[in-house]
Structure formats: structure tokens, C-alpha cells
Automatic annotation (TrEMBL):
The keyword DNA-binding applies. Residues 10-68 form the HTH tetR-type domain. One of its GO terms (molecular function) is transcription cis-regulatory region binding. PROSITE patterns: HTH_TETR_2. This is TetR/AcrR family transcriptional regulator. Keywords: DNA-binding, Transcription, Transcription regulation. Residues 31-50 bind DNA. InterPro entries: Homeodomain-like_sf (IPR009057), HTH-type_TetR-like_transc_reg (IPR050109), HTH_TetR (IPR001647). SUPFAM superfamilies: Homeodomain-like. Pfam families: TetR_N. It comes from Amycolatopsis balhimycina DSM 5908.
Length: 186
């Protein structure tokens, strides 16, 4: 990737990425100049860090996916029973998704780095689904690939639920729906 950035350059990159997320969420066609203004930086500084809009979108994709991985790992999913791990991971992922709504809900740049991070995220999810099945949360004949796809869909829908913003409440809703559906409780 190259040499590490100085602390001030890292702050600039972080400010640009955070501003880009906010600005693009409001106006997906926003210019690099609008993003620079929102970051409190000059357009030249933004272009010094990101040669063009595509490079900025690629950096957004990588940054958001890396934050998802960090959120998953911070939940320490292997250190708890599957239900607890699933709740922790889901709540942490929803926190990240609420911050990176634009980047994680739009088709952003799919570089090899972003693809590798997505494969790691997906691997964590597969591992969690296998544990959930092994511990009896999912039926022994459940299609784990389908369960994983439903889980991802529930995460996407949860982030857009207008009346519930607390990640822990949303995580409970996602997990309850994944494990029990919407039918009546017996």
C-alpha cells in the first residue's frame, strides 16, 4: 500500500472520508469541492489524498468494510454462546451501518481490497451461522446460505426502520425475526 501517513495526513484522510459519507448521503452527485468544503479542507488537499472521485469511493468502501470487520471482532464472537455473539455482532454492525449508510447501502467501488474485506466479513457470518446451527438456534436442516442472506437483508432493513434507532433494540428485532420469523409465538 505504500508508506504510512503522518498523523496530520491520517486526520485529513479521516476527515475527508467522514465528510464524503455525509455529503454523498445527502447528494450522491456531490463534487469533490463540496466534500472538501464539508471536511474543512481545500480541494487541493482532497485531490492530494484522492486523485479522483473513483479513488475516493474506493477508499470509502475499504474504510467502511474495515470498520465492519473491527465491529465484528470487537464483539468477540468466539468468546460467547452463539446467541450472545449474534446479538453483539449484530448491534455492533448496526452501529457501523448507521454511520456509513451511503457507502454500505450503495454500489460503491469494488476493488480487490474491498472484495477481500467483504470475504472476511462473510466468513465471520458463515462461522456464526454454523455455530448457531450447532448450538440449536437454527434447525439442523436449515439452509445456512439462505439464513445468511436473510440475516443480511434483515440488517439492511433494520437500519432503515424509522421508529427504532437503538442498535441493541434493532439487534434484538433482527435476531428474533431471523430465528422465529413473524409468526405467532407458541
Amino acid at each position: 500500500m505504500g508508506r504510512a501517513l503522518r498523523a496530520d495526513a491520517e486526520r485529513s484522510v479521516r476527515a475527508i472520508l467522514e465528510a464524503a459519507e455525509r455529503v454523498l448521503a445527502e447528494d450522491p452527485s456531490a463534487s469533490m469541492e463540496q466534500i472538501a468544503e464539508a471536511a474543512g479542507l481545500t480541494r487541493i488537499t482532497v485531490h492530494r489524498r484522492f486523485a479522483n472521485r473513483q479513488a475516493l469511493l474506493e477508499a470509502l468502501a475499504v474504510s467502511a468494510k474495515q470498520q465492519l470487520i473491527d465491529a465484528i471482532e470487537d464483539a468477540r464472537p468466539a468468546a460467547a454462546p452463539a446467541l450472545v455473539a449474534l446479538h453483539r455482532v449484530t448491534a455492533n454492525v448496526l452501529r457501523v451501518k448507521s454511520t456509513w449508510r451511503f457507502t454500505l447501502s450503495h454500489a460503491t467501488a469494488h476493488t480487490s481490497a474491498a472484495a477481500a474485506l467483504w470475504a472476511e466479513i462473510d466468513g465471520h457470518t458463515v462461522d456464526l451461522m454454523v455455530r448457531a446451527q450447532r448450538e440449536g438456534l437454527l434447525g439442523p436442516d436449515a439452509d445456512l446460505d439462505w439464513a445468511r442472506q436473510v440475516y443480511y437483508a434483515l440488517l439492511s432493513e433494520a437500519i432503515d426502520k424509522p421508529d427504532t434507532q437503538d442498535p441493541d433494540d434493532l439487534a434484538t428485532l433482527v435476531i428474533d425475526t431471523l430465528l422465529h420469523g413473524a409468526g405467532p409465538r407458541g
